[in-house]
Amino acid sequence: MPSTATEPHILIPRALAPSAIANRLVDGRVLNLGGRTMGTSWSARIVASTPLDGIAAALQALLDRVVADMSNWEADSAISAFNRLPAGRWQALPPDFFTVLQRGLAIAAESDGAFDPTAGRLVDLWGFGPAPARLAPPNDAQIAAALANAGHGRIELDPHARRARQPGGVAIDLSGIAKGYSVDLLADHLRERGHRHFLVEVGGELVGEGVMPDGQPWWVDLEAPPGVSVVPARIALHGLAVATTGDYRRYFDHDGQRYAHSIDPRSGRPVAHGVAAVSVVHRRCMDADAWATALTVLGLDAGLALAAERGLAARFITNEGGEAFSPALADMLD
Questions:
Q1: Domain tally for the chain?
Q2: 127: domain CATH number?
Q3: What is the predicted pLDDT for the residue at 2?
């Protein structure tokens, strides 16, 4: 039964020690920056005692770089160029693109294909990529053809030359990991500039570092599906990232059935096992992003089992309002 409780779960990571509060910037104030990227918004809340000259422009430039490298919506992006290559051709990749693709392929292997950055043909086929949106699901033959052009094991990487080989027909889609990586980029840039207390976010995916001037951590509510009654979960995001995947963000309805954008790369079809959202807390937002997708595809039982095996901190919410915490996340409960 859906819970009617209103008091939130409070999640406190072990890294939030008294020393972190003692090192707060007492004379600082929280300055807010933001803008648009990847069809959504980005924001940064930075504790500083001096003006943030040039920071907003620098953060926007980093996000623009991710779009130029990894947006399937941009015909002249590096990823679009790779997807157009003939079979057997190698292409040198920009550093960000190579880093994300390499990590995405690793998580694909670790999740037995529940996350797969080579599923671009499937994403397009179901109308969740740059191709026009669909009003009806594709047929079995179309799905089989798209599946034949996928498979994370088909991509060869050459780390020394930072290049990848197009096996023929594969369309890489990094939308399930690139946004998380972009949040990491913002956080890393702020650290390099000497900032130690901030909360950065792109499209609801976040990285929190340090604390606010009053010593309070960056309290963040894990995202929950609209209309689903579930106990809120509030985390002190300190030295951690969080990302959520949900079946309520993009979908289409046909003949009384909902087809969500969370596609199982192994079957070629949207998942339909009752998991409405999965949030993952991780040191890197790139990993949180990809693992949230993989665990959503796996479903409640298999997803919880893999989260426990991998030590992933994850919360699952079902369409009926049920919730489950992996052991690593339950360990943070106050």
A1: 1
A2: 1.10.3980.10
A3: 45
